Amino acid sequence: MHNLAPFTPPLGPQPPNPHLYAPKQVTLQMKEKVFSLSGDDFTVKTTEGMTVCQCHGKLLSVRDKKKFTDAAGNELFTLKNKTFAISKSFHGESPNGHGFEIKGHLKLMGSKSTVEFVNEVDKSPVELEVKGDWMDRSASITWGGRPVAHINRSYFNVREIFGDKQTYFVTVAANVDLSLIAGICVALDERENEE
């Protein structure tokens, strides 16, 4: 398990919210190929069982957009597929106008994506790099070389059910917008399913 340094100020395109920005490092549990399997809504939780956000995407609009809400059902952002982009890209936008872009870059080995947004707390431009092998569910999300999150197939915890190939884990640094990280994972999963 990775130990990630906390971010000060908090990192994310939305105002810091105690339900989305954890004061300590957390690990999210993600289901892979959710929409290709069912098209149903699904919940993103921490390995401790706390609900972070919910993702709503109907089968008919699976290639269109997905709405992310908090545990109380308030809209956080909508993730839209940018259809005319050369390589698969997504745009996330919240009801109050905060947004982010996820851009895919073609590479021979593994995959690379960038995620761009204006950090809500200090208004600085941010470009996260996502590098790794998405097929294998091992990747890292960094900002200027500093680790923001690690995506991994395995999580060493006796409470986990071993052998669940439909699950992967995302360890996220403290004070990082967890819904943003969940949105990045859903976008990358969707892109991988289409390729």
Automatic annotation (TrEMBL):
Gene3D superfamilies in the record = LURP1-related
**Looking at the Swiss-Prot or TrEMBL record, what is one Pfam family this protein matches?**
LOR
**Protein family per UniProt:** Belongs to the LOR family.
- Name of the molecule in the record: LURP-one-related
